[in-house]
Structures are given as C-alpha cells and as structure tokens.
Design a protein that fits this description.
The complex is a heterodimer of chains A (370) and B (541). Chain A has 2 domains: 202 residues, P-loop containing nucleotide triphosphate hydrolases (Rossmann fold, 3-Layer(aba) Sandwich); 122 residues. In chain A, 53% of the residues lie in helices and 7% in strands. Chain A is built from 16 helices and 5 strands. A 5-stranded parallel sheet of chain A has the order 2-3-4-1-5, covered by helices on one side. In chain A, α6 links the parallel β3 and β4. The longest helix of chain A is centred in the last third of the chain and has 22 residues. Chain B folds into 5 domains: 169 residues, Rossmann fold (3-Layer(aba) Sandwich); 61 residues, Orthogonal Bundle (Helicase, Ruva Protein, domain 3), CATH 1.10.8; 115 residues, Zinc Finger, Delta Prime, domain 3 (Up-down Bundle); 128 residues, GMP Synthetase, Chain A, domain 3, CATH 3.30.300; 32 residues, no CATH class. Helix content of chain B is 56%, strand content 9%. Chain B has a 5-stranded parallel sheet with strand order 2-3-4-1-5, covered by helices on one side. A 3-stranded mixed sheet of chain B has the order 8-9-10. Chain B has a two-stranded parallel ribbon with strand order 6-7. Classes of the chains: A alpha/beta (370), B alpha/beta (541). Chains A and B meet through α1, α5, α6, α7 and β5 of A and α10 and α17 of B.
C-alpha cells in the first residue's frame, strides 16, 4: 500500500528507517505544497506502526487496525483539522448540530475522495477547544493500538492561542503517541512549535509522476494527463481537478483566443468575449492564463523544433499553423510570459477583468503578428 | 517502553549541563549558596535554550533533600518526583492552556496550603505570555507578597507580552541563543553517550541549521540518527535535510562568470527535477555569496571548514565585490518575487539569464567617473547628477542648511572646470547648471528662472525677461544670491537686470452667431434650397 505514494521517496525512506530502527519520534512536521501526499503519508505511517499483519509490507490495508484507520474511525486516532466553530466539549462531543453535519461530510469526503477539497461555509481555524480535547484524550490510556496517532492538518491554521496551548503537549506527550503536524506554509508556524518537531519535507511531484498517477489510477488519456501535469505545478489535487473536467472549457477558450489573435479577427474577439461572459470570473481567468502560458511555451518549443516538449499534442496542427511564417516569436515570447506573470498578479489584486481580457487578447495578437 | 526523543532524554538535569547560559547559572548558583532566593523569577529567551529545564533544575536544587544546594542529587525522592513531573510541591502549569482569571484564583486557593514534603512550594508557569491581562492582574498582589516559602518561576519566549507590573516583581533572566560551538560540543557528548559516530561536518551542519536552539539541534540529530543509525555521514545528512551541496552553487557561479546561459539553464532544470524547494535554493545561494563576500574581505568565518576555504577563495577572485553585491541584491529581489509568483520556475530562469548578462549593465560608479572626465563638454549630465545628489539633502524649510552642505560637492566636481567667458553661447551652454544652482537657493527661484521668456548676455549684465509678477518678485528677492552663484561660473562677476514683461490683458473675442442670411450668402446652392423649401434655421452652432 505504501507503494501507492509516489514521488516522495526521501520522506518515505526517512519514515521507514525510523520504524526499522525503532526511533519513532513523538512529533513530526510534514511540510510541502498542497496535493503532494502529506496526509496520505501521515495516515499510512500511522497504519504501518499499528498494522497487525505479519509480513514485511506494512501497512497491509486489510487487517482490523488498517481498516479502522482507512475509515478514520480508529479509537486511538485523533484527527484535527480547521473547522468552523463546533462547540466541542473536552470529551470530543460536537454540540453544534449544523457544524456536525458539515463535519461528517468532511470526513466522508476525506475517506472517499481525498483528492477533492471540501470547503466549509464559515471561516475555519483550529480552535483551542480541539487542543483541550486532545489533552483530555491524552490523559486516558490507549484503547487497543500500539501507538496513538494524532494528525493535525493545516497546522498553520491554529490561532496563536491554540498553538501556544499545544506547546506543552507537543513537547512532552504521553508515551506511545505520535503527533503529526501537516502544513503548506511552514513559515506561518511559531518557531516554538517548529523546534519541538522533526521536520520532513515533501517535494512537489514531478510531471512524470503526476502523468503516471493520472493514467494508471484515474484512467485518463495521455494528452489530457500531460496537460494537467504541466498546469498543476506539482499539485496532484489540481491535476486531478483539471483532468477530470472532461471538456475543459478554459482550454478551449484559450485556443479560441489564440486562433482569433492569429487571424487578427478583432470583431470575432468581441463575439467571443460575449460568449464567454459567464466564464469571466477571477478563478477561471487565472485558470485560463495557465493554459495560455502552456500554449505560449508550446509555440516557443515548436519554433525551436522541439516537438517532444509540446504539451498540447492533440492540437499540434493548429499550433503549427500559428507559428508558420512568423519570425521573431521567440524574442517576443519572453516578454509575453512576463506579461502573463504580471497579469496574474493584477488579477489577484482585483483589477477589472474586462480590461484584463482585452489586454490579453491584444498581447496575444502582438505575439503572433509582428 | 517506547523511544524517547533526545531532547527529552538529555534534558539538562544539573546546572553544569545547561550550555552557554553561564551568565544565568552562575548568578542562580551563588544565590542558592548564599541563601538569597527571590520569590519570583522570570526566564525569557528564544526557543530551545533551556528556560523550562533551568526552572526544573532550580526547583530541584531548592527542594532536594540536601537542599538548598547547587548540586541536586537527582536520586532522592523529591528530585525523582520533580524529574517525573509528579511532585506535589512543584506544580508545573501550562500558562497557555490555563489563561483565565479563574485558573489564577484556583492557584491562589492552593497557595494557602504549605508545602507537603519539601522546603519550598514552587510554581512553574510555562508560556506565561499567554495569560490574559486579567489573569496577570489577579496575580499581582500574590506575586508581590507571596506566602512564605512559595516561589514562582515564569518561563516565556515573548517577554514583551508580559505586563511590566509583573516583570517589575520578578528577577528577570534573559537567555541567549546558543552559539554554534556549544551546540556542536553538546551534540558530540550526546553522540558519545549514544554510541554513535558522526563526522564534524555533519555536526556543524546540524548546528547551523538549528539556528541557536538546542532543542532544534537535538530534533535534527534525532532525525539523522533514525535514518542512519550508528554511522552518520555528511552525505546522508545532506540528503535528509535536502541541503544543496556547495559544489552546485560553485558550478552556478562559475557558469555565471563564464556567461554560459545555456548550460546554466540546463543545470537549473536539473534542480527543478530534483524537486528542491526553490526558496531554500535561493537562500542557500545567498549564504554562499555571503561567504564569498566575507572571504573577499579577508574575514575569518567559523561556518566553513578549512577544505572548502580554498574553493571559496578561488571563486572569490573571479568576481568583483560590486558584482557579488549585485548578484546578492538580485537574489533578494527574486526571493520576494517567488513568494507571489504562480510560476516560480519562470522567475528563476529569468533571473539566471539576467545574472549571465550582468556585465552588460555597467557599474554606476564608473559611469559617474566617465562623466566627470568629460565634464567640460558634457555639462548637462553633471548638473543632473549634482542635482540628484542634492535633492535628498534638501528639506522643505531649511534651505540654508542644505546650501551649507552642498558647496563642497560642487567644488569637488568643478575644480577641473575652466571658468568661461560671459558670452551668449556660454550662457546657453551653462544654463542647466545655473538652474541647478538656483535650485539650491530655492526651488521657486529655479522655476522662475526656467520660465524666463528671454535671457541675454550684455557685457557684464545678464538681462532676464520674466513673465508674471510672482516670478519677478521671487527673482528680485533672491537677486544677490543668484548673482554670486552665477558669477562663480564665469571669469568676471555678473550682474542681473530683471525686466517684467507686461502680459497683455486677454483680448475680447467677438462671438458671431451665424444667421440664415450668412448661410445664404456663403453658398448659392443653399440659398436656392432655402427659398424652395422655406427652411428656417432652428439652431445655430
């Protein structure tokens, strides 16, 4: 089962050695960007130290303990994540009934489709009551497991009070307890928290790993998997989201813009802008920019006759038509890419999207026609 | 029994095990031996330097059966209980979990009962900065005059959050960051006790990465041990902490020196493929260049070992100090860009190309120097530069002060300049400099001078024609200062004669309304048309 985690050989080796050498630390900190397997690794690590299988390949995924862990139902497993106010009692009872439903949905989502993000409606953070609950839990003895496992996801979402309340517990937890903190933003954690943990870095997944996972695990066709892996910047969650949009709207949009820019069809662009009016939202435009960036780098690759580097293989003929007889694209390409970077920043700063789109079109035109 | 991490296993148990805090341990020891024990202590300092440990040691020295002593036995029942955290007389409170006034009240109730089996009743409140303001205030009276034999020890990383009224009631001890040497020494001791071989390079790497915290160092050491067991080598340690070997930076800088952009980009792609954290990569490179710079300045650094020094020195020879500074500033800028960028790879590629082309961007100091040499023919740029220099000095209201400061800057530049004859041509040529000088007298004066409609050199006189009363008055008040400053530029002193140009009053404009008759006269065709259709002019434009 552990082999399912790909692209994190170093982290896995570190953990495996810790188990083999019986030097499992009381507190780990898994850090690295989103969607690279931090939670899965943490869970499997917890399963592995508790697995009842006799063979070497732990976790087995079938024994009683593993099964409970996979369902996130193990009595000696505490899972803390940022939530809306649950009105949690020290015994771990959730008194806020609305939040309880959301909580259950979150767990359900985490068990069945861990790659999809679940969003709570309210503002979320890790509250002090969770830590109080944890300390109460630690006062009791362990039910059945060899090691009690605590996973704190998005540990940077702890409020300052929570983090401080956690310090003493984190420094001297009861024996046979493993606390695993998970975060994307290690710089947001208190230095006093960092100093009490063993940090383990999770690197962004390489493109080939993402392609492999998409094609083998999710049965996604090669060209889409390839595009998705380029867009995702090492984040499997993004890659899956991108790849599972069967007809990618943003991608078509990007290609249409380029097609119109190539033929200098300004009137046609106005029509297009109207047609895509509904799509013109912040997130989607940022998505669009990602595709535009990939197309631009494809054009560059085509220009330099690097056909192997091309991402949008299925559209190669269109791309070729665009590059043909256009000299000087590679000179302008660098400026164009920087322009896209700048545009991205501007969109994050909430500028007028209509202007962004027009600017984008005009720059595409400039790129394709000297 | 499960495994206990090094930081807990080797928590200091006596004063001499607390490293690099001699300034505190000595005072405490002498306080104990002379029996001058305060009733409240405040320990502050960064993470992992021994605050909580020292608090426990202090508790042990006071409550040990042989106590108070500076060498607690660590074997009597009291000591053992304190180490295990079960002593009824040493109460360790987590200040961050028990923050409210109620928690303090509870504590005050307990204070009524004397210590059960030992001499002192000791309260250790850790992370005390998280107590609420009310809780702090509730504590004040107790803290000032606690019952006999009650001792409070507070420990915190953030003393600025503790109320001043609390601080003033405590003996405050500021803990220092632990220097690299002491960390290495401690790690060495521990590796001996654990029976582990570890090379010095790894020790230094861990100590550097720990950044002044002993617990950090021990956590990292733990990680290294759990990975390598009994034999820790530098290669494995680098692998664990994904430290980029200096050799790679060496390659990068050599390629930058050779301006080999293509290979540089290829190297960079290999870094990308390895999935190295880009922020880490950049900060590593910053460190590398820092060492280069320091080596260039012949500074002895403890961070590197002797073998590497030769490599650094050779590389340092290739680069000028300025160039290294430039690279460093680009890296710093790049690091902030990386944080916001959605495509960090692109930013890094662009940076590398920029660094390769660094030589094409010339040194500013050299440009200024060049300009100075050619100053007679190129007067204009100089005056621009001198004005740029003077601007930051100039403040709004104290023009006098700035006028005092600037002359030496001017005289430096102008020693090479030959004074010119006062002719029309020279006047035109030096006009920019005159303006700059005027700016030093007053900003307004320069503007007035700039907007003169004509300027003529007549004999020794400079005839200026000014438009508008405001400018005229301004020039008139500053006339003497202007004259003297302009005179410095020419062979002979110059007099200024001012003329006020009368602005013409706005002329009256007759607005003509076109009538139907006008239109008719203008165009016979329309005339015909009007007659035929009987048209009327509805609106005139």
């Amino acid at each position: 089962m552990i082999n399912k985690i790909k692209g994190q050989e170093d982290a896995l080796k570190l953990l495996r050695k810790a188990i083999e050498n019986e030097r499992i630390s009381q507190a780990y900190l898994f850090y690295g960007s989103d969607g690279v397997g931090k939670f899965t690794t943490a869970l499997y690590f917890g399963m592995a130290v508790n697995c009842m299988a006799t063979n070497e390949l732990k976790p087995c995924g079938h024994c009683d303990s593993c099964h409970k862990f996979l369902q996130l139902e193990h009595p000696d497993f505490v899972y803390i994540f940022p939530t809306p106010n649950l009105n949690l009692s020290p015994e771990g009872e959730i008194k806020n009934s609305d939040a309880l439903k959301m909580f259950q949905k979150y767990i359900e989502n985490k068990v069945n489709t861990p790659w999809a993000d679940f969003f709570f409606k309210d503002t979320i953070e890790i509250r002090k009551e969770s830590i109080t609950m944890l300390s109460k839990h630690f006062e009791l003895s362990i039910h059945e497991a060899r090691y009690r496992i605590v996973i704190v996801e998005d540990a940077d979402m702890m409020t300052i009070a929570t983090a401080n309340a956690f310090l003493k517990t984190l420094e001297e937890p009861p024996e046979r307890t493993i606390i695993i903190l998970i975060t994307e933003r290690i710089q947001k954690l208190l230095p006093t928290i960092l100093s009490r943990t063993q940090p383990i870095y999770f690197r962004p997944l390489t493109r080939s790993v993402i392609e492999e996972i998409l094609t083998t695990e999710f049965e996604i066709s090669a060209p889409i998997a390839r595009t998705a892996s380029r867009i995702s910047a090492g984040n499997l969650k993004t890659a899956i989201r991108v790849a599972s949009d069967s007809v990618s709207l943003s991608r078509n949009w990007a290609f249409e813009i380029f097609a119109l820019a190539a033929t200098k069809d300004d009137l046609g662009y106005l029509g297009l802008a109207k047609a895509y009016k509904d799509q013109q939202k912040k997130d989607q435009v940022i998505d669009l920019l990602k595709y535009i960036r990939i197309i631009a780098s494809d054009l560059g690759a085509l220009n330099a006759n690097f056909e192997a580097e091309i991402t949008n293989i299925d559209k190669i003929d269109d791309l070729k038509a665009m590059v043909e007889n256009k000299s000087g694209i590679d000179d302008r390409l660098y400026d164009f890419l920087l322009f896209l970077e700048d545009l991205n920043r501007k969109i994050e700063g909430n500028v007028n999207l209509n202007l962004v789109m027009t600017n984008l079109y005009l720059n595409c035109k400039h790129l394709l026609n000297s | 029994m499960s495994y206990i991490v090094l930081a807990r296993k080797y928590r200091p148990q006596s004063f001499k095990e607390v490293y690099a805090q001699d300034h505190i341990t000595e005072i405490l020891q002498s306080a104990i031996s002379t029996n001058r024990i305060a009733h409240a202590y405040l320990f502050t300092g960064p993470r992992g330097v021994g605050k909580t440990s020292l608090a426990r040691i202090l508790a042990k020295s006071l409550n040990c059966v042989n106590g108070p002593t500076i060498t607690p036995c660590n074997s009597c029942s009291n000591c053992a209980e304190i180490t295990a955290g079960t002593s009824p007389d040493v109460i360790e409170i987590d200040g961050a979990s028990n923050t409210s006034v109620d928690d303090i009240r509870e504590l005050q109730h307990e204070l009524l009962y004397p210590a059960s089996g030992s001499k002192y009743k000791i309260y250790i409140i850790d992370e005390v900065h998280m107590l609420s303001k009310n809780a702090f205030n509730a504590l004040l009276k107790t803290l000032e005059e606690p019952p006999d034999n009650v001792i409070f020890i507070f420990a915190t990383t953030e003393p600025q959050k503790v109320l001043p009224t609390i601080i003033s009631r405590c003996q405050r001890y500021d803990f220092k960051r632990i220097p690299i040497d002491s960390i290495v020494q401690r790690l060495q001791e521990i590796s001996l006790m654990e029976g582990i071989t570890i090379d010095t390079e790894s020790l230094y790497l861990i100590a550097r990465k720990a950044d002044g915290g002993m617990r950090d160092a021990l956590s990292l050491m733990d990680q290294a041990i759990s990975y390598c067991m009994n034999n820790i080598t530098i290669d494995k340690v680098r692998q664990i902490f994904s430290v980029i070997p200096n050799q790679i930076y060496h390659n990068f800088l050599t390629l930058i020196y050779e301006k080999n952009a293509q290979t540089l980009i290829n190297e960079l792609h290999q870094i990308f493929e390895q999935g190295i954290d880009l922020q880490e990569f950049i900060s590593g490179m910053q460190d590398f260049i820092r060492i280069l710079l320091l080596r260039k300045l012949q500074v002895q650094i403890k961070d590197i070992n002797q073998d590497e020094q030769v490599m650094f020195d050779e590389l340092a020879k290739l680069f000028g100090q300025n160039k290294l500074m430039y690279i460093l500033s680009y890296l710093i800028a790049c690091k902030t860009d990386l944080k916001t960028s959605s495509n960090p790879y692109l930013i890094l590629e662009a940076l590398m190309i920029k660094l390769c082309k660094l030589d094409e961007m010339e040194d500013i100091a050299k440009i200024i120097e060049k300009l100075n040499y050619g100053s007679i023919t190129q007067t204009q740029p100089i005056s621009n530069i001198s004005s740029a220099q003077s601007q930051p000095v100039q403040s709004k209201d104290s023009t006098k002060e700035s006028a005092v400061k600037i002359p030496d800057a001017i005289s430096k530049e102008e020693t090479t300049v030959v004074k010119l004859q006062f002719t029309q041509d020279n006047l035109e040529q030096l006009w920019q400099r005159i303006l700059t000088r005027a700016k030093k007298i007053s900003q307004m004066c320069a503007i007035a001078l700039e907007s003169t409609t004509s300027k003529k050199a007549e004999g020794k006189k400079l005839c200026l024609t000014v438009e508008g009363n405001t400018f005229y008055n301004c020039l008139k008040t500053n006339l003497e200062a202007l004259e003297s400053s302009i005179s410095e530029l020419f062979e002979k002193p110059v007099k200024i004669s001012l003329h006020l140009q009368e602005t013409e009053p706005p002329t009256k404009v007759n607005i003509q309304h076109t009538t139907l008759e006008d239109i008719k006269q203008e165009n016979p065709e329309i005339d015909k048309f009007v007659k035929l259709t009987d048209s009327v002019l509805v609106k005139t434009l």
